[in-house]
Specification:
5 strands; alpha+beta
Length: about 80
């Protein structure tokens, strides 16, 4: 099951484990990915195959239902990277 993602970025918390991920750059799209394959699949289904992704920091959280939710993490200054 593919992870869901939150459209709201969250501030960095010192004890939070973050990983390197990708964010879709298409206008109005906030999709997040843990790897390039997920980004390519998203582009194929939602953006006519045009891949446009930037690296970003993400936090992966497992919900009680067992689903995974991805949150984009803001940099130390609270800026969106």
């Amino acid at each position: 099951m593919p992870p869901k993602f939150s459209k709201l970025p969250i501030p960095r918390i010192p004890e939070m484990i973050i990983i390197s991920g990708l964010k879709c750059r298409h206008p109005g799209c906030d999709a997040l990915f843990v790897n390039l394959e997920d980004s390519e699949e998203h582009a194929a289904t939602d953006h006519a195959g045009k891949v446009a992704a930037d690296t970003c920091a993400i936090y992966e959280r497992q919900l009680k239902s067992g689903e995974v939710q991805l949150h984009r993490v803001l940099d130390e200054d609270g800026e969106q990277t």
